[in-house]
Write a structure and sequence with these properties.
Blueprint (H helix, E strand, L loop, with lengths): L35 H9 L6 H4 L4 H7 L2 H10 L7 E6 L9 E4 L4 E4 L9 E5 L2 E5 L2 E5 L2 E4 L9 E2 L3 E5 L4 E5 L10 E4 L5 E5 L18 E5 L4 E5 L10 E5 L6 E6 L2 E7 L3 E6 L2 E7 L5 E9 L11 E5 L8 E6 L2 E6 L4 E7 L11 E5 L2 E9 L11 H5 L1 E9 L4 E7 L13 E6 L1
Antiparallel strand pairs: 1-2, 1-29, 2-3, 4-7, 5-6, 6-9, 7-8, 9-10, 11-12, 12-13, 13-14, 15-16, 16-19, 17-18, 19-20, 21-22, 22-23, 23-24, 25-26, 26-27, 27-28
């Protein structure tokens, strides 16, 4: 493993490893011939996506790769650019289908345990997944509750869960004040707070209907409590949210798109009225928030029906982030000065299904994910015919600064092709 001086933060004074993975026999060490503290540092540099498999090497390695110290070592001695930047994929209801993390650098998948199960509810979807430090949060969503009536009517959820990568376990945290699904969500930069806005009760089994809301609240991670904030100017569900601002200056919470009122076609079929505008709320460093301000329409009538999928690339120098939208096979960049979208590029390879595509930012690049039926060219011919017919995940990756495209292909561990119309994605650095 190559390791340059520039890859690491300045080393701190000598440290001692936790007793939880120290050898009971003094002659046994994590790496033969090396002190345990140095061995721990070396092993902590290995990509996070490989840790699960390395636990089976021996008892000492199992204890080490399951310890809380591992995450702290990585964050303390690895530069942020050298941490494993992973894509978290929730393919289905996470209480019955294990979520996975995908490492594009190493083409490695690692499963996470499913959420704690509630025997009274099922069909969780349209929840928000977001990361903060070494934790992954699953908030809200829409589900069916066997205790409600009628049974076929979905209900919004206020439940909130947190996954700790250090302990590899889920825990329940304080529920939101208002149950919601399909809402905007963002972590406040350089802060232990999460903001959620809007949402409703719509379920993926129904193409329309469901409630809408304008409620906004903020979660204090340290206090484990939610606080209500000023509501959105209008009811808004199916929207996206992100933060603008660096660690020093005050920040802004942006909410784009979504749908509010609905109309009916022929007096029977409900059709959503999609918003073309964005709203912004100031967020002070101390936690205080300002009033909402409306920015107006981001495109002209007839230009597009609704906001496409959004991905945000943070500025490593602390400036404003770059906001991108995937609309069919084209990628647009948002111009904050003129409040409009400008075409950036087009996807080189035609998508299998333009309505079912993943779009997410990772390591300063835009990842467009598409499920394709066929075998990975790197697989052995001895694979079964059923495996060869299974879907691969094809990634087309765009670097906005270099204006260059590259591709990756991987075989995901899911039994069925990923349906990005319902799958939930987020990223985390570990």
């Amino acid at each position: 493993m190559e390791c340059n001086d520039t890859d690491l933060w300045v080393m701190s004074p000598p440290f001692s490893i936790d007793e939880e993975f120290q050898s009971e026999t003094p002659t046994l060490t994590l790496i033969p011939g090396l002190p345990d503290d140095l061995s721990a540092l070396i092993l902590s540099f290995l990509p996070f996506s490989h840790h699960h498999r390395l636990r089976s090497t021996c008892k000492l390695w199992k204890n080490f790769f399951s310890s809380k110290t591992l995450i702290s070592l990585r964050r303390k001695h690895l530069h942020s650019s050298k941490l494993s930047h992973l894509i978290c994929v929730f393919s289905d209801d996470p209480t019955i289908s294990s979520p996975y993390v995908f490492d594009p650098r190493n083409l490695a998948w690692c499963h996470l345990p499913p959420l704690p199960c509630n025997p009274h509810v099922y069909g969780l979807c349209n929840f928000a997944s977001i990361s903060h430090d070494s934790h992954l949060y699953v908030l809200g969503g829409s589900l069916f509750d066997t205790r409600s009536f009628p049974l076929d009517r979905p209900s919004p959820s206020s439940s909130a869960f947190r996954f700790d990568f250090a302990t590899q376990s889920w825990e329940s945290i304080s529920p939101m004040l208002s149950p919601r699904g399909s809402f905007a969500c963002a972590t406040v930069t350089n802060s232990d707070r999460i903001i959620v806005a809007g949402g409703g009760s719509r379920h993926t089994m129904f193409g329309a209907a469901g409630s809408r809301m304008n409620s906004v609240e903020m979660y204090d991670i340290g206090k484990d409590e939610w606080v209500a904030l000023d509501g959105l100017p209008r009811f808004r569900a199916g929207c996206v949210g992100f933060m603008v601002g660096n660690e020093v200056d005050d920040k802004e919470f942006w909410v784009m798109g979504g749908y509010g009122e609905s109309r009916t076609v022929l007096g029977v079929f409900p059709v959503d009225e999609y918003y073309r505008d964005a709203v912004v709320m100031d967020v002070k460093n101390g936690g205080e928030v300002g009033k909402w301000r409306e920015l107006g329409d981001m495109w002209e009538e007839g230009e597009r029906r609704r906001l496409g999928r959004i991905a945000v690339i943070e500025d490593i120098n602390g400036g404003s982030p770059s906001v991108f939208m995937l609309d069919k096979s084209d990628i647009f960049r948002y111009d904050m000065a003129s409040n409009c979208w400008k075409k950036e590029t087009s996807i080189p390879k035609k998508l299998t299904d333009e309505s079912s595509v993943g779009f997410i930012a990772l390591d300063g690049e835009l990842h467009v994910m598409d499920s394709i039926i066929g075998s990975d060219s790197t697989e052995n011919n001895c694979k079964s015919r059923q495996q060869k017919r299974s879907a691969s995940l094809f990634l087309q990756i765009y670097h906005p600064q270099k204006k260059e495209w590259r591709t990756l292909i991987t075989k995901p561990p899911f039994q069925q092709p990923l349906d990005f119309k319902t799958a939930v994605l987020c990223t985390i650095r570990i």
